[in-house]
Amino acid sequence: MSPDHLPQCQLEDSDDSRSHQRYEVANGESIPAMGQKRFTFVTANGVHRNVCAQVTRVNKALPSVSQVCGKDHRVVFDKAGSYIEDKVTRETIPLEERNGTYSLVCWVRNGPNDTELRTQPPATFAGQRR
């Protein structure tokens, strides 16, 4: 995620930023890890999830399918309906397909005492780590 996304969430050091980890982006460039942000999102079907997102200079939040799967979830891409499923609770989070790209549409609170949800740019599955 970009450091400009979710300005209400504090940017913290991460293992990747402390070890000077770099990420490879689609054009082959290498960009530095800048830290992480922790937040809770909620989906249109009411599923809440706590997230710790890595921060670097990108245009879109790019969740890693392999990391999602490593957290006891499965990701299903299918013409009949795509989703992330929690293998423990069986809760599902729908994914929307737009022009060949799958997005997770979610909202994040503006702060810990905020009761209103803010729309954020959709998180899109893509990208890789180097």
Word description of this protein:
It is a single chain. The strands form 3 sheets. This protein has a 5-stranded antiparallel β-sheet with strand order 5-6-7-8-11. Strands 4-3-9-10 form a 4-stranded antiparallel β-sheet. It has a two-stranded antiparallel ribbon with strand order 1-2. With 130 residues, the chain is mainly beta. The chain has helices spanning 15-18, 65-69, and strands at residues 22-24, 30-32, 35-43, 48-55, 73-76, 82-86, 92-98, 101-104, 106-109, 117-119, 123-124. The chain has one domain. The chain is 7% helix and 40% strand. Strand 3 and strand 4 (48-55) form a beta hairpin.
In short:
The protein has 130 residues and is mainly β. The protein is 7% helix and 40% strand.
Q: Give the low-pLDDT segments.
A: 125-130
Secondary-structure-derived class: mainly beta
Shape: globular
Helical region count?
Answer: 2
Please indicate the percent range of residues in DSSP E strands (runs of 2 or more): 35-45%
Cα radius of gyration in angstroms: 15 Å
Main beta sheet: 5 strands, antiparallel
Helix content: under 10%
Number of strands: 11
Q: SSE string, helix = H, strand = E? A: HEEEEHEEEEEEE
The total number of structural domains is 1
> How are the strands ordered across the major sheet?
5-6-7-8-11
Q: Name the average pLDDT.
A: 84
Distance between the ends: 16 Å
